Amino acid sequence: MYLEDCDDRIVTGAAELFKTYGIKAVTMDTLAQSLGISKRTIYEKFKDKDELLLAVMKCMMLYQREKVKSIIDTSPNIIAAIFRMISLMREHINTMNPLIHSDLKKYHSGVLRKMKEVCEYPDYQGTELILIKGKEQGLFKDGIDNDIVTRCMSGLGILMGDNNIFPADRFTQRDVIKNVLINYLRGISTERGMELINELEQEL
Question: How many Cβ atoms sit within 10 Å of the Cβ of residue 9?
Fold first, then answer.
C-alpha cells in the first residue's frame, strides 16, 4: 500500500469514525450510512471489518512516517523536532476516542499481529531515524544502542497512552509526558541535548 492509496473514501471515512467513536462501536452499517453508500460496496473492497481496519492502520502509519520525516527535515535540530512531534501527538490524542487501543487489543488482536508481520509495527524505522540524527548532531550519546532504545521509546509511547496505567482522571497528559518520555530523553542525551530539552520543556 502506498500513501496515495490512503485517499480511498472508505478508508478515510472509517478512520474518522474509528477516531471519533472507537472501533467496536463502528459497524459496516454505520460506515455505509455515514458515506451514503451501500454496505455491499464496502464488502466489494474489504471482506470484513478486520481487513478494513488493517488498511486504516497501514495508512495511519504511512502518514506518520511522512510526517516524522517532514518535521525532521524542517526543524533546526532533532530535539526541536521531537518537541514538535510531542505537540502533534497531544493534539492527536485529544481528538481520538480513548477506547481505540483497548478495542484493538480486545476485539482485533489479529489485526495487530498482521501489522507486525507486514508493516514493521510498531514503527521502529521512524524512531531509529530520530536516534541517528540525534547522534549526528551531537545531541544523543554515541554509546546508546539504537535497536534497544528504539524499542524502549516505542514502548513508552504505548505505555503513556494506556488509560489503565495512567487514568485520565488522575494524571494529566502533560505530566505523564514530562515524567516518562522527557526524563527518558534526558537519559540518552548529551549535555547539549539536555540544555535544549530544558529550554523546550517549558513549552509543553
Answer: 11
